[in-house]
Inverse folding.
C-alpha cells in the first residue's frame, strides 16, 4: 500500500464521518420539525424542515464512500525482525 493510498483512505474516512454526521443532523432537524408541527407550531416546523432539506444530499455519499474504502487494498507490509 503506497503512501498516497493511505492518505486517500484516511481522507475518504473523514469525508464518510462528516457525511454521516450531517445526515444525522438532517434526521434530527426533521424530528424537531415533526415535534413542532404536532405542537401546532407550524412556522417553527417550516423553518426546521427548510433548514434540514439541504442536508438530504448527505444521505447518498456515505454508501458509495464506504463501499470504495472496503474495496481498497488495505494490506500493509509487516517488518520481519530476526
Amino acid at each position: 500500500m503506497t503512501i498516497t493510498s493511505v492518505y486517500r483512505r484516511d481522507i475518504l474516512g473523514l469525508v464518510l464521518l462528516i457525511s454521516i454526521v450531517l445526515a444525522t443532523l438532517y434526521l434530527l432537524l426533521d424530528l424537531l420539525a415533526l415535534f413542532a408541527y404536532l405542537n401546532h407550531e407550524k412556522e417553527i416546523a417550516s423553518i426546521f424542515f427548510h433548514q434540514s432539506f439541504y442536508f438530504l444530499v448527505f444521505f447518498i455519499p456515505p454508501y458509495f464512500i464506504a463501499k470504495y474504502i472496503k474495496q481498497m487494498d488495505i494490506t500493509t507490509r509487516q517488518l520481519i525482525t530476526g
Notes: Helices lie at 3-38, 42-53, 61-71.
